[in-house]
Write a structure and sequence with these properties.
Length: about 475
C-alpha cells in the first residue's frame, strides 16, 4: 500500500524520536559522572569506562548492524535496537556497583548501534524524492543538535533534582512509546535473509577490528600514543580490518560488498565527515575545559555557554540546509558549511587566558558552528547517494561508523595534544592559566587544519560536473556532483 505524505513524516518522527533518545544519552551521562563516581565508588581511571564501554560497543557494531538491517529488515533491527537500549537503560539505573553499570553501558551501546545504523537507510527508503529527502535529513540533523543541547541541561536537572539513576530511567517511557510506534508506523521491509550475505567470519573480523580500534583510541590518552599498548592494539585493529577487506573481496556472499567503495562521492563524503567530526567533537570538549579550568565557569554555566552553538546548528539544519541544497547543491552547501566552521575554530586560537569576554571571544564561534547544520545535511545526502536500495542499511552503518571513529579519534588526539602542551609549559614555569590556554590554542589550530583538509577534499574529490546547455531541465548547478545511485 503506497504511503501518504502524512504517513511518511509520521514514520520520520518515530525514527527521530529513537535517535533523540540515543543522542540525549551521549551528553546527559557526562554531566552526571561526578555523582555516579561518588555513589558507586568508581576510581578516576575506572570512571572513563562509563563512556568508553558505550563508545566501543556503538562504534564496533554499526557496520554489522547496518548490514543485518539490509538482510533481515531495517524495521526489525531498529525496533530491536530500541528495545535493547531501553532495557539496558533500566539496568543502568538499578546498577549498584561499577561492573554492572559498565556492562549495562556496553549493552546500551549495542542497542544504540542497531538503531543508528539503519536510520539513514530507512529515511532513504521513505523519501525517494530528492527535495523531500533533503528536508528529512535536515530534520534528522536538527534532532541531533537539539538532543545534544537538551542533554546537557537535562542531565544537570535530573541529577541535582532527583538522582543520577533518573538520567537512565527517563529513557523507559520514551523507549516503550518508540518501540510501539515503530512497529505500527514503520514499513516491515523484510530483506532477502541471512543466506544472502551471512558472512560469519567477516562479521567477526570487522566487529573485532572496529572494537579494538576504538578501544585503542579512547585509551590512548591514558597509555600514550607511542606506548606498546596503543601501538599493539592499533596494529591488531588494522590487521583485522585488512583481513576483513581481503575476505570481502573473496567471499561469495560478502558482508560488505566492495562495490560500496566504487562511488567517489561516497568515499569522499565519509572521509570529509571523519575529518569534520574529529575537529568538532574535540572542539566541544576543549571549549568546555577552557571555560571550567581557565575561566572557572560552573558546570551549569558551561552548558548554557555552549547552548548557542547547539541552537544555531539545529536552526540551520531545520530551516536553512534544505533550501540551500535545493538552490546551490550539496557541494556548494558543504563548502560553505566547512568554511564557516573553519573560521569559527580559527577564532579560538586567539582566546585569552585572562579577561575573556563571552560576547566577543566565544559567541562568534558558537554562531559559526551553524555551519555544521549546512555541512552535515549535505554530507548525509552525499554519503547515502551511492547506495543501492538493498545496501541502504549498510551505507547508513558505514556513514555512522566514520562519524563515531572520527569523533573518538579527534577527542583522543586533540585533548592529548592540549594536555601535553599545557603540562610541558607548566613544568617550564609558565603560569597555569597561560599554559592551559596555549595547549588549547595548539589543539584548536590542529582542528582548523583538519577542517581545511576537509575543504580541500570536498573541492577536489566532489568536482562539479559540466553544466548542460542553457534551458535544459536539470538540478541546481552543483547538485550534480559525481553521485551514483
Amino acid at each position: 500500500m503506497p504511503r501518504t505524505p502524512r504517513s511518511r513524516w509520521l514514520a520520520l518522527a518515530v525514527i527521530c524520536t529513537g535517535m533523540l533518545m540515543i543522542v540525549l544519552d551521549g551528553s546527559i551521562v557526562t554531566v552526571a559522572l561526578p555523582a555516579i563516581q561518588q555513589d558507586l565508588g568508581f576510581s578516576s581511571s575506572g570512571l572513563a569506562w562509563i563512556v568508553d564501554a558505550y563508545v566501543i560497543a556503538f562504534g564496533g557494531l554499526l557496520l554489522l548492524a547496518g548490514r543485518l538491517g539490509d538482510l533481515i529488515g531495517r524495521r526489525r533491527i531498529f525496533v530491536a535496537g530500541l528495545a535493547v537500549f531501553t532495557a539496558a537503560s533500566v539496568l543502568c539505573g538499578f546498577a549498584t556497583d561499577p561492573a554492572v553499570l559498565v556492562a549495562a553501558r556496553f549493552l546500551q551501546g549495542a542497542g544504540g548501534a542497531m538503531t543508528s545504523a539503519v536510520s539513514l537507510g530507512m529515511i532513504v527508503a521513505l523519501f525517494p524524492e530528492p527535495a523531500e529527502r533533503t528536508r528529512a535529513f535536515g530534520a534528522f540533523g536538527f534532532v541531533g543538535a537539539a538532543g545534544a543541547s537538551l542533554g546537557q541541561v537535562l542531565g544537570g536537572v535530573l541529577t541535582q533534582g532527583l538522582s543520577w539513576p533518573w538520567i537512565f530511567f527517563v529513557n523507559l517511557p520514551i523507549g516503550v512509546l518508540a518501540v510501539l510506534a515503530g512497529r505500527r508506523l514503520l514499513d516491515d521491509d523484510r530483506g532477502p535473509g541471512l543466506r544472502a550475505g551471512a558472512d560469519a567470519l567477516g562479521a567477526v573480523l570487522v566487529t573485532a577490528g572496529l572494537m579494538i580500534g576504538v578501544y585503542a583510541i579512547v585509551e590512548a590518552a591514558s597509555y600514550g600514543w607511542a606506548s606498546p599498548h596503543t601501538a599493539g592494539l592499533g596494529g591488531l585493529s588494522i590487521a583485522l580490518l585488512a583481513a576483513f577487506l581481503v575476505r570481502q573481496a573473496r567471499a561469495a556472499k560478502p558482508l560488505l560488498p566492495l562495490r560500496m567503495f566504487a562511488s567517489r562521492t561516497v568515499v569522499a563524503a565519509n572521509l570529509v565527515q571523519l575529518l569534520m567530526l574529529a575537529a568538532l567533537f574535540s572542539f566541544q570538549v576543549l571549549v568546555a575545559l577552557y571555560l571550567q579550568n581557565v575561566l572557572h565557569y560552573s558546570a551549569s554555566r558551561t552548558g548554557l555557554a555552549m547552548l548557542p552553538a547547539a541552537l544555531t546548528i539545529g536552526t540551520v539544519s531545520l530551516a536553512v540546509s534544505a533550501r540551500a541544497i535545493g538552490r546551490f547543491g550539496e557541494r556548494t552547501t558543504l563548502l560553505a558549511g566547512l568554511a564557516l566552521l573553519t573560521v569559527g575554530l580559527g577564532l579560538l586560537v586567539r582566546l585569552p587566558a585572562h579577561d575573556a569576554h563571552y560576547a566577543t571571544d566565544l559567541l562568534p564561534t558558537m554562531l559559526a558552528a551553524g555551519g555544521f547544520g549546512l555541512a552535515i545535511t549535505a554530507l548525509t545526502a552525499l554519503g547515502m547517494s551511492g547506495a543501492r536500495p538493498e545496501d541502504a542499511g549498510l551505507a547508513s552503518g558505514l556513514f555512522n561508523t566514520t562519524q563515531q571513529v572520527g569523533a573518538a579519534l579527534g577527542v583522543a588526539v586533540l585533548t592529548t595534544v592540549a594536555s601535553s602542551r599545557g603540562s610541558s609549559l607548566i613544568a617550564a614555569g609558565t603560569a597555569r592559566a597561560e599554559a592551559l590556554t596555549a595547549g588549547f590554542h595548539l589543539a584548536f589550530a590542529i582542528g582548523a587544519g583538519l577542517l581545511l583538509t576537509a575543504l580541500a577534499v570536498t573541492a577536489v574529490a566532489l568536482r562539479r560536473q559540466r553544466q548542460p546547455a542553457p534551458g535544459a531541465a536539470t538540478a541546481p548547478a552543483d547538485a550534480q556532483v559525481s553521485v551514483h545511485v
